[in-house]
């Protein structure tokens, strides 16, 4: 072959053995050599994103952080159930001798039931076998003693104290204290001529509402020597000691 084409073919045959020898001497050809692999093809398109990898293992706990700021106070919760009664505490130490404690607050006054009378004799001598009418009033604020009948009427059930103190003059005295038409106690005093004597008696009685108590000359005979004037008195009295409780 002659001409330019033949010349190029001869030149190519001379270069190929040289390139093969150089490539056998190392894996990577020298880029400065005529047969270096620097003439690549057109760059390809980027590949698609790969799938996410699996989660790694948990790391170790880090150092404890600083204490944060206190948060705002929350709303008040519902009251809890009452707990069990606690164990009694030890007794306190005794107070200092001579030191008075503080005065407590004034309490409300309790309602007190009252019933009392104190009367004296004005008519003389009293008639026998009927209630003696003591018409001189020393005390009868509640009005429980009736001067028209000579009887005390119980308005407050409870325990009462009754007493009488009689001046004896001109004749003997025999009197009884009655409760509900029944003689309870007797008092007898024998008159001494030219002398003024005294007779007395007292008793505790339990009365129910509506019970009556009075004094009267007892028996048939001249035993009504009860006396009273400007300087001598014969008296009858009674008062409530304490009322019955609700469960009496």
TrEMBL record:
<keyword id="KW-0732">Signal</keyword>
<protein>
    <submittedName>
        <fullName>ADIPO protein</fullName>
    </submittedName>
</protein>
<feature type="region of interest" description="Disordered">
    <location>
        <begin position="45"/>
        <end position="87"/>
    </location>
</feature>
<keyword id="KW-0964">Secreted</keyword>
<feature type="signal peptide">
    <location>
        <begin position="1"/>
        <end position="24"/>
    </location>
</feature>
<dbReference type="Pfam" id="PF01391">
    <property type="entry name" value="Collagen"/>
</dbReference>
<dbReference type="InterPro" id="IPR001073">
    <property type="entry name" value="C1q_dom"/>
</dbReference>
<dbReference type="InterPro" id="IPR050392">
    <property type="entry name" value="Collagen/C1q_domain"/>
</dbReference>
<keyword id="KW-0379">Hydroxylation</keyword>
<dbReference type="GO" id="GO:0005581">
    <property type="term" value="C:collagen trimer"/>
</dbReference>
<dbReference type="Pfam" id="PF00386">
    <property type="entry name" value="C1q"/>
</dbReference>
<feature type="domain" description="C1q">
    <location>
        <begin position="110"/>
        <end position="247"/>
    </location>
</feature>
<dbReference type="InterPro" id="IPR008160">
    <property type="entry name" value="Collagen"/>
</dbReference>
<dbReference type="GO" id="GO:0005576">
    <property type="term" value="C:extracellular region"/>
</dbReference>
<dbReference type="InterPro" id="IPR008983">
    <property type="entry name" value="Tumour_necrosis_fac-like_dom"/>
</dbReference>
<keyword id="KW-0176">Collagen</keyword>
<feature type="compositionally biased region" description="Basic and acidic residues">
    <location>
        <begin position="54"/>
        <end position="70"/>
    </location>
</feature>
């Amino acid at each position: 072959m002659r001409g330019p084409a033949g010349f190029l073919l001869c030149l190519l045959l001379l270069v190929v053995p040289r390139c093969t020898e150089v490539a056998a001497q190392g894996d990577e050809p020298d880029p400065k050599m005529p047969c270096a692999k620097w003439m690549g093809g057109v760059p390809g398109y980027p590949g698609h994103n790969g799938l996410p990898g699996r989660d790694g293992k948990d790391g170790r706990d880090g150092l404890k952080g600083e204490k944060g700021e206190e948060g705002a106070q929350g709303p008040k919760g519902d009251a809890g159930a009452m707990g069990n009664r606690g164990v009694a505490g030890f007794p306190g130490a005794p107070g200092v001798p001579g030191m008075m404690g503080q005065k407590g607050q004034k309490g409300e006054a309790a309602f007190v039931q009252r019933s009392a009378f104190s009367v004296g004799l004005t008519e003389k001598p009293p008639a026998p076998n009927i209630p003696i009418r003591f018409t001189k009033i020393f005390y009868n604020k509640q009005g429980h003693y009736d001067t028209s009948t000579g009887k005390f009427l119980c308005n407050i059930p409870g325990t009462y104290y009754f007493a009488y103190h009689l001046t004896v003059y001109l004749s003997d005295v025999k009197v009884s204290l009655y409760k509900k038409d029944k003689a309870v106690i007797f008092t007898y005093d024998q008159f001494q001529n030219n002398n003024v004597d005294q007779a007395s008696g007292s008793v505790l009685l339990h009365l129910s509402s509506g019970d009556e108590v009075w004094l009267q000359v007892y028996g048939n005979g001249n035993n009504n020597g009860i006396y009273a004037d400007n300087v001598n008195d014969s008296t009858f009295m009674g008062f409530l000691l304490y009322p019955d409780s609700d469960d009496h």
